[in-house]
Amino acid sequence: MTPERPRGEDAIPQPGAKPGPKPSRRGRGGIVVEPSPPRPAQPGPQLYAALDLGTNSCRMLIAQPKGSQFLVVDSFSKSVQLGVGLEASGRLSRSSMGRTIQALRICQKKIEKHGVTRMRLVATEACRRARNSRDFMRQIRRETGLAVEIIPAEEEARLAVISCAPLVSTRTEQLLVVDIGGGSTELVWIDLSAVPPEDRPRAIMRLHAGFTPKGDAPAARVVDWISVPLGVATLKDQFGDVEDDAARFALMSWFFEENLASFSPYNAENPREGFQIIGTSGTVTTVAASFLGLRRYDRTKVDGLSMTSDQIDTVIRDYLSLGPEGRRTDPRIGRDRHSLIMSGAAILQALMRIWPTDRLSVADRGLREGLLYAQMSADGVLGDGPYR
């Protein structure tokens, strides 16, 4: 689960903006439930909502457009562990669905309170795989009034990509965006070499309409994309019977790499110059926060941070030296992530080992931000950059 941003922080910090208030307090089990609203909505532009129902958590943002960006008005995040037991049974359990319904009721009240009429509420890998997910969508509609849709893996990958548009360097010619989720990991390789440097972040944003370029203007070209059915929860479950901590980590990293064989750029020869990899997930932001030694998460310090491979390896070695109990009590990791951080780190290490770069751009953004950008772009309410 991506750590929640502090109250009052925008999707993309404004130049010269003062840091927002301290992050919201944590409830039982380390769950972050942000009070509403962090900032009052300004009169004028309508509000938009984006909800991401994943394998581990239910997360929502309510925001209003401002220029080429948006301001977060309210947010919600809760661990619901929807995918618990899915690997064994192929179905969503009654208890996990019950927890999710409770979280969605809170989201419905927030949407109603703010008078939001423009929204996109989506479910991802756990609901794509579960045999009873359609029945569950009908139950959600019946008990909360919310219309949650199950989106395909390609759309999930595309939304993750456009959420990262502001972090794309004008020097980037080859871009790999990686979204490590609870039930799956999406990778998208994009060729930007035909796009003028100053237009590259904007070209990524235009992918909201689809991976196939439209029009005659120089466009970002999607070389390949893949959705690997291994995320932090599903990969952990695959090797839950391996007792040795270091051996389990090594096996997870190897197994994930084996599942990338069909991804066409896997063995491609690409120069380091002009290559950028952006990682968006709770794993990536947790590793970044650990590297910075943050005992209290600060999005303004994490989002956009560049980490070297050596720095990432140092953090992962530190996690391994801590062992399961040490990770459980480490405030940099958090009690809601300690059991999943090593499977996520195994994925991250495999990715950094394979591709020609020694740096990773950290993105504290993902599906919700992508949903907001896509809705606002489709409505024509976003200005033309700059995105930084």
Q: How does this model look, in words?
A:
The protein has 388 residues and is α/β, with parallel strands linked by helices. The protein has two domains: 28-153 and 367-379, 2-Layer Sandwich (Nucleotidyltransferase, domain 5); 156-363, Exopolyphosphatase. Domain 2 (Nucleotidyltransferase, domain 5, 2-Layer Sandwich). Helices cover 37% and strands 18% of the residues. It has helices at 86-89, 94-114, 125-129, 133-144, 153-163, 200-205, 232-238, 245-258, 282-292, 299-302, 309-329, 341-354, 367-379, and strands at 48-53, 57-66, 69-79, 118-123, 149-150, 174-180, 185-191, 221-228, 275-280, 306-308, 359-363. Strands 8-7-6-9-11-10 form a six-stranded mixed β-sheet, sandwiched between helices. Helix 2 crosses helix 4 (133-144), helix 8 (245-258) crosses helix 12 and helix 9 (282-292) packs across helix 12 (341-354). The protein is globular and about 50 Å long.
